[in-house]
């Protein structure tokens, strides 16, 4: 009885609301209400992961197998709002929740058996310290929990780079050349890797990371992101 009273009191002082719509959350909901989860702009890349508009972007840039994204990115759309809250409003739990949800989808499709480990695209130390977390790592954490796969922080960002947001495709490729390295003591030799990031636009960052992993002996590298735009 006391615990129930304490919970009700804390809910009154610190209400739990949906990070997207602001509705009050039920006890079984975490950060997103069921209504908003049902309205997420989900893709069907998991049904055609080897041939789609994402893999088309990557041709000639890296020997990548499958490419998938959980959500379709649209300017001023639901996915952009979620990513903004995740990256700039200290809401890492959103990434974990989205990872859990997409991991369940990949479980049902049977794709989870394709990989040995998850590796997130790293942030530079300065940016990680400023934000407090890596959103790609948090998404990978949620995926790993759902698919029972280990998350390994094998890559590091050796150089600080400018934001990719307003750069052209060629500029993005130049901006990430030689930026990523395998951490000392880490090995990916013979492993089937699922590389994890938050957003895919041109794919330059993902390809740069994938090329490092492949050059260090990864058996194969597939890609997954929270959102991607055409």
Structure description:
The structure is a single chain. 37% of the residues are buried. This protein folds into 2 domains: 1-39, no CATH class; 41-228, Rossmann fold (3-Layer(aba) Sandwich), CATH 3.40.50. Strand 5, helix 9 (204-215) and strand 6 form a beta-alpha-beta unit. The protein contains 9 helices and 6 strands, in the order αααβααβααβαββαβ. Helices cover 40% and strands 15% of the residues. This is Competence protein F-related protein.
Helix and strand layout, with pairings?
Elements: H1 2-13, H2 34-38, H3 53-58, E1 67-72, H4 78-88, H5 92-109, E2 117-120, H6 125-131, H7 135-147, E3 155-157, H8 169-175, E4 180-182, E5 192-200, H9 204-215, E6 220-228
Parallel strand pairs: 1-6, 2-5, 5-6
Antiparallel strand pairs: 3-4
Core attributes:
230 residues; Rossmann fold; four-stranded parallel sheet; 9 helices; 6 strands
Question: Could you write a compact summary of the structure shown?
Answer:
The protein has 230 residues and is of the alpha/beta class.
Question: How helix-rich are the residues, as a percent range?
Answer: 25-40%
Q: How widely separated are the two ends?
A: 53 Å
How many β-strands, per DSSP? 6
Given this structure, which CATH class of the largest domain is correct? Alpha Beta
Task: Kindly estimate the percentage of residues that lie in beta strands according to DSSP.
Answer: 5-15%
**Shape, please?**
globular
Mean pLDDT: 89
CA-based gyration radius: 18 Å
Order of neighbouring strands in the sheet with most strands: 1-6-5-2
Helix count, per DSSP? 9
What is the number of independent domains? 2
What is the CATH T-level topology of the largest domain? Rossmann fold
Helix- and strand-based class?
alpha/beta
């Amino acid at each position: 009885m006391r615990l129930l009273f304490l919970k009700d009191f804390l809910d009154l002082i610190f209400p739990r609301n949906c990070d997207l719509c602001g509705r009050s959350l039920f006890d079984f909901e975490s950060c997103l209400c069921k209504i908003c989860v049902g309205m997420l702009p989900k893709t069907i890349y998991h049904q055609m992961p080897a041939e789609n508009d994402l893999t088309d972007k990557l041709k000639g840039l890296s020997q990548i197998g499958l490419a998938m994204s959980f959500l379709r990115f649209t300017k001023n759309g639901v996915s952009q709002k979620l990513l903004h809250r995740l990256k700039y409003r200290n809401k890492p739990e959103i990434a974990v929740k989205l990872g859990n949800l997409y991991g369940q989808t990949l479980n049902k499709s049977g794709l989870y058996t394709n990989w040995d480990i998850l590796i997130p695209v790293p942030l530079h130390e300065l940016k990680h310290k400023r934000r407090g977390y890596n959103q790609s790592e948090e998404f990978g954490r949620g995926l790993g929990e759902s698919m029972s796969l280990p998350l390994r922080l094998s890559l590091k960002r050796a150089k600080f780079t400018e934001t990719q947001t307003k750069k052209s495709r060629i500029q993005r490729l130049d901006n990430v050349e030689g930026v990523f390295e395998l951490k000392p003591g880490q090995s990916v030799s013979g492993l089937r890797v699922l590389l994890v990031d938050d957003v895919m636009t041109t794919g330059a960052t993902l390809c740069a990371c994938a090329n490092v992993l492949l050059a260090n002996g990864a058996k194969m590298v597939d890609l997954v992101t929270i959102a991607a735009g055409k």
